[in-house]
Write a structure and sequence with these properties.
The structure is a homodimer.
Chain A (H helix, E strand, L loop, with lengths): L9 H7 L8 H15 L11 H8 L3 H13 L3 E4 L5 E4 L8 H10 L2 H24 L4 H16 L5 H15 L3 H19 L5 H20 L2 H20 L4
Antiparallel strand pairs in A: 1-2
Helix pairs in contact in A: 2-4, 3-4, 6-8, 6-9, 6-10, 6-11, 7-8, 7-10, 8-9, 10-11
The structure holds a DNA duplex (30 and 30 nucleotides).
Chain lengths: ~250, ~250
DNA sequence: GTCCAAAAGTCTGGAACCAGACCAATGAGG
DNA sequence: CCTCATTGGTCTGGTTCCAGACTTTTGGAC
């Protein structure tokens, strides 16, 4: 095997020579909007930004955006009204989750993709918590953290997921690294569909609440190691649950 | 402003409604290939994969890939030869670094960008090492790790950076999470320009070698905590050096 | 010297996507 | 009731990008 020098070999080339484009602009857009709806970024009854504005934000043409909106309209997620004060309104309530949905959702995703997403999330969220705990926090930062923590604890069941997301993302954003925050958001997105299929039960909430409190406490106490461990423990729980549903 | 309900507010919508396409396929491809060359994924004298294969990996058409290759050829990075045993060969050597270059490079980058990149790198590389140390390693994985470690230690000065990158990326890729590997590669890319501007001196190499050895040992011993700490210590060194050059 | 496989180079038709101009509907406010 | 700003709906021409078939060059193997 003379051949050309292979450099780092497979190592590195896998990461660097990965696909440049995620794929089809239309499908990608549908997926994004669907995530925004299911995550509650745009709540029930809420309105998407005007087409021209949204198209600019997403970096696509209005035509492509409209196709995506049309698809979601046909699928019953959106109600589009024209005229002033019109727009694309969210007409979708997340169904109350059942364990059967979860099993289906987990198996829809490939096993390797699930493992990838869980590993990635574990790494970046632990990293964010550790960084944040190691930083000198301002009063405003401390307040934001406790406020979002309170938000989860006081959330109505229908709002629980949204508040939970807000707490996790707050840690990421407070870390002060936009790159790290984006990575955490991305990681969360990849498991959102699955987490949404987990019923929100009182014991789970209480369990999670204790872990959330531990995370916040460790961060506020400035103990990076404890913060990292607390996040790891928290995420390990849901990760194990999801893994358990693999065929 | 009555308006529509805003959901998670800025949090989340920033991440969700970000651009779907990174931009122009051609430019994106040029950038990628350039990174691969500068990172040493394809070393001096080495050959890029055949066009058809590479196009498939990058998820673009051969036409677009060829345009990118042509641009790099014109810019003097590649030498393209046809016929069997032909291909696109790397004709580029990173210039020998001087401290003046480093100062300039650091200040070219914004302070916040530098801080962001360093934080991000710290988080994801620590995460990767921790994950890898916590996994049950196959013999092949162990061998890959020790082989890349030996690679750094035996590297000629001109080749040191490449081998160093190979070692760091090997840890990321062995973690088994493509997402995490991509994040580590991305993080490394953001500081490559700076690291390349640091002269490779014997004391630095010996210091780094000891830290590399500690990292590998912790991973092979299956001690996630030690692995994480070893990586943190290793990265903290260069991070402090770079921070010292801020205006 | 001839053959052949592997690689770059070329061409074509079509699909996806875009930018921008223009049309149509809607409902609050005068 | 009328006006008008705002929003979705439509159309047109052009650019980018793609999939695949085909051609040419090259150098090792026989």
């Amino acid at each position: 095997m003379g051949g050309a020098p292979t450099g780092l070999g497979v190592t590195g080339s896998l990461a660097l020579l990965r696909p440049v484009r995620s794929g089809n602009a239309f499908e990608e857009t549908v997926e994004r909007l669907l995530q925004a709806i299911k995550l509650g970024v745009v709540p029930y009854g809420g309105k998407l930004p005007p087409e021209r504005e949204l198209a600019a934000q997403l970096g696509i043409s209005r035509v492509t955006l409209r196709e995506a909106i049309r698809a979601l309209q046909d699928a019953g997620y959106l109600d589009v009204r024209r005229g002033r004060y019109g727009g694309a309104f969210v007409v979708y309530r997340p169904p109350h989750p059942r364990m059967g949905d979860l099993r289906r959702a987990v198996n829809e995703m490939g096993q390797s993709d699930l493992e990838d997403a869980l590993t990635f999330r574990m790494a970046v969220e632990c990293g964010a918590a550790q960084v944040l705990a190691g930083a000198r926090l301002t009063d405003a930062q401390r307040e934001t953290l406790t406020a979002t923590l309170d938000g989860v604890n006081e959330a109505a069941p229908d709002d629980y997921r949204r508040k939970d997301i807000a707490f996790h993302l707050a840690i990421a954003e407070l870390s002060g690294s936009p790159l790290l925050a984006a990575a955490c958001a991305d990681a969360r997105l990849r498991v959102t569909g699955l987490l949404n299929a987990i019923p929100v039960l009182r014991p789970n909430i209480e369990h999670a609440a204790a872990q959330h409190a531990a995370i916040a406490a460790a961060i506020l106490a400035g103990d990076p190691e404890a913060a990292r461990r607390a996040v790891a423990e928290h995420l390990e729980g849901t990760a194990a649950l999801l893994r358990g549903f693999l065929a």
